[in-house]
Amino acid sequence: MVEQILSSSQHTWSDKTLRYFPPVLRDTLVGRVDKRGLAIQEWQQAETTVINQCTQLLSPSADPTYVVTYISRSFPQHRKYLCAGVWILMHGHPENINSANLARVLREFSPEEVTDNIYTMVDVLLHQIHVELQRGHPLQDLLTKAAANLAFFVWTHELLPLDILVLALIDRDDDLHALHIVISLFERQELHQRMRLFFLARGPPEHWLHTGMFKRMELQKALGNYLSWKDRFPVVFDDIAARLLPVIPLVIYRLIENDATDLAERVLVIYKQLLAYHPLRFTFVRDVLAYFYGHLSGKLIVRILNVLDISKIPFSEGFPQHISPSNSSTCPPPDYFASLLLGLVNNVIPPLSSSSKTGSHVDSSYLSARGTPNKTPTTGQSGVTGVSEVQKAFYQIQDPGTYTQLVLETAVIELLSLPVSATQSVTSLVQIVVHIQPTLIQSSNGLHGTSNGSGQTSVLPTSPSGGSTDSMNAGRPIPPVSGLNTSNFVSRSGYTCQQLSCLMIQACGLLLSQLPQDFHMQLYLEVARVVKESWWLTDGKRSPNELDSTVNYALLDPTWAAQDNTSTAIGNIIGLLHSFFSNLPQEWLEGAHVIVKQLRPVTSVAMLRIAFRIMGPLLPRLANAHTLFNKTLSLLLGAMVDVFGKTAQPSVPAQASEIIDIIDFLHHAVHYEGQGGPVQATSKPRAEVLVLFSRALESLRPDVQHLLSHLTTDVNSSIYAATHPKLVQSPMS
Fold first, then answer.
1. Residue 645 per-residue DSSP state
2. Residue 634 main-chain phi, psi, to 5 deg
3. What is the pLDDT of residues 416-436, one digit of tens each?
């Protein structure tokens, strides 16, 4: 799609703009040739002819009939230089231009021709400034004269639309003079006067709160001469000042990209009142914080936040203190992050059932969209929300339309505004998730339990049933989060400790999924670290049977552990990831491969089960994304080779019979993907999938090869290969 757009565009982006682009897009665009130098050469070749035509058309004593001649007989390649010719003829004296003739010609131009004229004029304008600088003219005088001449086009005679002119200037941001001219235009009194008229005509931004009929200003006064006579005009931006609303955010972006943060702050201050009318100002604040995350000063962040009506945004109680200059590098305490999650539980996450709690502020429209789980109050819920399959990235979600959305988006803005790194925020959230059950239980009971003879706490048993007595004696209590006070969380939520712990895990996954990919990568790295450092995986005294029992207990259904207060860190982490994945758009799921890559080489069946439990549920969801499905499947097969490969050296010898369930899952997953949905009697894997298995089988032990023999390209052992036309005609290897 990007290639199709660029094929019809000659636009290039400056290096300062490209550095903030996603890597894939940046690599695509960085090689584009800047043709503005060629455009100036073409202008110089046509300049004599254009100036001659403009002189006949635009001199004060020009023949009015020449307008018709120019419109009907001028060449298209010369028409695009009309405004550039006007600029040259001005010589700093716009009164020398026949504005009536110019207006008549511009009215006959199509919108595309006008836009082309504006961009060409901007290129010529900037080129002329550089030429005049070489001749010794002061820069400030040149910029002042340029702004005055542009005022002739925009304000004096309203010949050109201001918004397109500003867009053309900021698109030339690699020329520093362009941005200075934009600021000069923004500071002109003519524009401020139009803004005051706009405020008087529109009334308060929240006009829907006031009774009475809305009186629209006369169209010509609102839009200006250039736009008012058009057959069609925007319904929302039907005022020359309002037409700047979608442009100002782009100006802010360009100023930040060019490290002109002082100018960005000045624009935000000057246009704060106008931005209150922006239909998506909440989205603007969130997106600019997300796009430039890690590159904004605390002062600029506060200025951006002030675009919002702070009194009406449900920010956390301590949020203003955490973004104040005195806390420029201090990470908020765990209480702050836990309170964010509790707010999501109470206002965003659907209740476990209609009777499981009271006082919820969740919007009914939101519940119907997400689907309320039909659970009884006594049944815990894993960290997977009932979200619609139509997932959206955070930047695709527009301004909150319900209180539920407002609470979620406010939490996102808070995390983006904190003066700490994504690593610190993610680590704090993950630590809360890892220790959520003991923290809630101890704070709810007001005690820490009494230690029994085996080292276990009577309140917080941490080893699942099924292990030996000796291994139980080696159990360790899971400590609560240091510095986290959740004494009133349970009472404020209306849930039991077990229910609240599951819902907070679910809320954490939802919140992290709404953040930029910087946070996602840190989540993957932190999850891998927690898994690798899990004490029951690194404890050499654990028997294989107990490890298997523990894995089954913690991973197959985290709610088991939550119901009797024995949840493990691994179970919580898996629940967090599943909640996170369920709210993540499909195109961002590939990043999750980092988790398994960090866990490899896998040295035990227990760790292999963890890898499959993390990535396995994604396979059915990727049924229609074949490339990503293949990558995910290859990753899991590689982890299997780590344990059951011909040259593998697992920590504990493992039998193929121990992973029968994993083999069954793989069979089902590849049939699901081959069918593109639920498995049917006629479902079969795709040829590309059989190739992946064939390559993996070359490295697996014979006893495991036997279990996967049907999923190969060998027509003698695989019924799927034998009935696949491509494989029968030319066997693949």
1. B
2. -60, -40
3. 999 999 999 999 999 999 888
